[in-house]
């Protein structure tokens, strides 16, 4: 969701959390410019992704994690987020559009990733430009709806996938508060974050309603962009994608609450009760606002991709998976790595200081395996050009395997 946990990097408790997470997808191939004749209903199909860091590819560089040698988990290398035509840098700094992102489902379908790590529903044109799902146009760049409109005019865009709203709830600040509270209070006098006034304010009925309205406006902007580009509603599908649970409930952590191992080794410094609250309250509230907005906008061509439980069994610090040194594997290329390592990236603190290859903003995001798992889910939603809704979960949990395309095999089941 959000990507700006920068203040965590300044914690000075001496806890070195070097980590990395999932990586096993093939970098997205360079795509030839669309033919001049391509456009609404004409040409090879395209899938376009819009939204924030949970769909842009944030943390998609890392496949699993190691506190001993980052190279064991470095699947995509330093150029992981380079998305300009020459592959030499980012089109928008810190959008972190990884080549492992879900947009690139392949199989004759082209992918275009317009999402941006840190994005909210509306564009932020400050010192760190973050395009929202709107029609902003200025010297710093354009909003994602405007970028979609311009791209769709010369491409046969058949499916637009949107994941947005987490940053509107201030998810990064919530995580920051929870980790700081964990690091600055002892296990015999726990300072929880779920009852902090600054955190609770994000989930009041009034704020939930306000975010839901903003998400509905963003989805409406997507429809307007496609209409402006010349599309009828029956020529494309809007897929609303929810957020996955990144951590287990408190009882599912493999590190004790006592001491600081949970953060210093695992990179998951949360008290059990806060983790329970995150899964029971935060995630359903954010996803509920997103799904409510999809209903409010009243479009006839909407599908839902429910990611709530997509990483269950592979979440950060969850029992059953571990760091490379904990599970006895050499690196991410080792057979079985996708099944025995985490699919969510560690929460970073001082491990981002200096010449570290890590970014604070990669914290608590789907890593390489997670990104590829979401891609596998999206391919099933695409359904050979007849998009369908569904809930995605890990296929064959405990014996997870890779498909011929190098992705974790996922199960897409009908929505309740």
TrEMBL record:
Keywords: Disulfide bond, Signal
Domain of life of the source: Bacteria
GO MF annotation: an example: hydrolase activity, acting on ester bonds
Record bears the keyword Signal: yes
Transmembrane domains' residue ranges: none
Disulfide bonds: 178-193
InterPro entries: SEST-like, SGNH_hydro_sf
Record region (Disordered): 397-416
GO biological process: lipid metabolic process
Transmembrane helix among keywords: no
Signal sequence residues: 1-32
Name of the protein described by the UniProt record: GDSL-like Lipase/Acylhydrolase family
Organism, as annotated: Promicromonospora thailandica
